[in-house]
Design goal:
The structure is a homodimer. Helix content of chain A is 47%, strand content 11%. By secondary structure, chain A is of the alpha/beta class. The longest helix of chain A has 20 residues. The radius of gyration of chain A is 29 Å and the shape is elongated. Chains A and B meet through helix 1, helix 7, helix 8, helix 10 and helix 11 of A and helix 1, strand 5, helix 5, helix 7 and helix 10 of B. Chains A, B: Pfam families: SpoU_methylase.
Chain lengths: 257, 257
């Protein structure tokens, strides 16, 4: 589905930015790059900044006009850094990804269009776009680097795509969760731990059974919040057992003796 | 509120990336930059890529270790490109922004930590972070440019911040949380606790310094997850101090004797 997204860079001045955009795209699983009248391309500077995304640069299509770049596109988003005199449907990157994904899911092709480093897109170019997208930057310092803007919009597209696929947006989320909580302790195991903790604290003289104050309830809140696994519980119980031994004056023992 | 976010770049090789990161930060309204042992800084290449964000570079703090960079931080997010053997609470950038914002709303300070261009953060550095953040890039081409990664995470922070400005309904829940964790511990306090914990475990013979295995990292994960308050930290440190006394064979003492 991501192959139906094209990234269109209009009249880019610095070839390094083309390379940076190619890298950002490839990081997000997007490969179709269209360059409208680039100032310098191909370029060694683009290859250097692409940092391995040379396949994206090699396959880039170079055209003379925005009109050619958009042939076959069903939905076009134009990035806009400034307010325009002509009001236009304005989206933030997340909304644009959501709308773009709808189009992709219906089998359509979409374009994300990025303007010149200093001047952005002209009004005429912006009027070829159904939607304008604005990255909500600080108004006092609003203009992102071109490759950084490509990174943000393609990141949002990928987030929307992964969410729609039902895929985790983090690597091995399920595995991590599974391992972390693989065997969560049960309430009774937790109670036995608190009992063990309490008696150990009494043995080392930290807890006075006659003046317990709120000590145990504070410790219950802390450990209860952490969501302890069985493995972690074994470690904590092991620490308590060794502490009891030293409190009884038994010789210290290494785990592996 | 955004002024309580610090961006920490560890051992950056290319000064251009420091400049790109500064620009990305300033675009998102974030200004506090901390550089841990940068290879080349200050640098004209950084200024060139910063493209006007020279105030961020000028105010950047240069320190020798990650530990120094995190002094005073309540919540630390470390970016991670690869799988680790020991699973850790893993967030995507949006989730990290949501968690980070909660901490900021309680008056805390947070850090987003970014590793070396090629090698990322070491396991030891990652263990100083309560959460790991992974940008859901294409597994086949997963490594983003450093400044691009800074752009994505700071963009999500800004999106969360702007959304929160328009939603005052969350205040009651946050106030409750704020009261529970009235004074969250800072990263340096947490590190001192881990040091105390480790030496105590050695003293009672539970931890063999020659065969440490993953014990300390597992305990770091557990306590890091819990979000310990200053009050709770005092209790835990008190327990360790009493345990050390019994390990040394000193007479047990009640708290109120």
């Amino acid at each position: 589905m991501l192959q139906n997204i094209r990234i269109v860079l209009v009249n880019t001045s610095h070839p390094g930015n083309i390379g940076g955009a190619a890298r950002a795209m490839k990081n997000m699983g997007i490969s179709k790059l269209v360059l409208v009248d680039p100032v310098e391309f191909p370029s060694g500077k683009a290859v250097a900044r692409a940092s391995g995304a040379t396949d994206v640069l090699d396959a880039a299509q170079v055209v003379a006009t925005l009109e050619e770049a958009l042939v076959g596109c069903n939905l076009v988003f134009g990035t806009s850094a400034r307010e325009r005199r002509i009001p236009w449907p304005l989206l933030d990157p997340r909304e644009s990804a959501s709308k773009g994904l709808e189009e992709l899911q219906q089998g359509g092709e979409i374009a994300l269009v990025f303007g010149r480093e200093y001047a952005g897109l002209t009004n005429e170019e912006l009027q070829r776009c159904q939607y304008h997208v604005h990255i909500p930057s600080d108004p006092e310092f609003g203009s992102l680097n071109l490759a950084a803007a490509v990174q943000v919009l393609t990141y949002e597209m990928r987030m929307a795509y992964l969410a729609a696929q039902g895929q985790p947006t983090k690597m091995n989320k399920l595995e991590t969760t599974a391992m972390l909580n693989a065997q969560p302790v049960t309430a009774d195991e937790l109670e036995r731990f608190y009992g063990h903790l309490e008696s150990t604290l009494v043995q080392i003289g930290f807890l006075d059974p006659l003046k317990p104050r709120h000590l145990m309830s504070r410790l219950r809140r802390l450990y209860g919040r952490a969501g302890i696994s069985k493995l972690e519980m074994n470690i904590l119980r092991g620490i308590l057992t060794e502490t009891e031994k030293v409190a009884r004056g038994e010789p210290h023992k290494r785990r592996d003796d």
